[in-house]
Amino acid sequence: AADPGSPYRVVLLGASGVGKTAFASIFAGAADSMDSDDCELCGDEVCEKEIEVDGEPVTITLLDTWDAEPDNEWAQERYMQTGDAYLLLYSITDRTSFLRASELRISLRRFHPAHHTPIILVGNKCDLVRRREVSVSEGRACAAVFDCKFIETSAAMQHNVWQAFHGIVRQLRLRRDSK
Ligand code: GDP
């Protein structure tokens, strides 16, 4: 088998309640993981495991510690610098979380001034159609402004969550291959 290489650190970012924990548990409980005990480093907030994307193995360390220290600016700033890539979540049912995602995107740019850090803007909870406050086109437009990819997901329905993880791996590989 191909060597999955050193782990990529993928960081979950976003306001409280948008679905970061739900994303992390889907990742940790991956049905498509290669064997059941490959999640050596799985805790509440960090999970490391090997997955396969486009037929090639890859090791991902997923971090979900954003909400752990809400008032610790230093910890948050450090957290924003630790990732190789970011999933920036908001809830389509919560406009405030969408605005928060924009703020976080701006902060990320400060910590990653070069433009090659993969970021995907993720509009989660797309199953809650009748509670939608942020349209698909707003999400897409925001991603275009901030020069990142965009996807709508439903962690509750397990819809597009793996597509988001796979998308981030593809971007990391493109970056790696262009070096
Ligand atoms: P976090 O604070 O960002 O970690 O958010 P959580 O993952 O704890 O989710 C907050 C709440 O939203 C929980 O009650 C989840 O069950 C719920 N939730 C998360 N993702 C979805 C989703 O895609 N659809 C729906 N309907 N609920 C969701």
From TrEMBL:
One of its GO terms (molecular function) is calmodulin binding. Keywords: Calmodulin-binding, GTP-binding, Nucleotide-binding, Phosphoprotein. GO terms for cellular component: plasma membrane. It comes from the Eukaryota. Interacts with Calmodulin. Belongs to the small GTPase superfamily. RGK family. This is GTP-binding protein. It comes from Stegastes partitus. The lineage of its organism: Eukaryota, Metazoa, Chordata, Craniata, Vertebrata. The gene is gem. The chain holds residues 76 to 254 of 307 of the full protein.
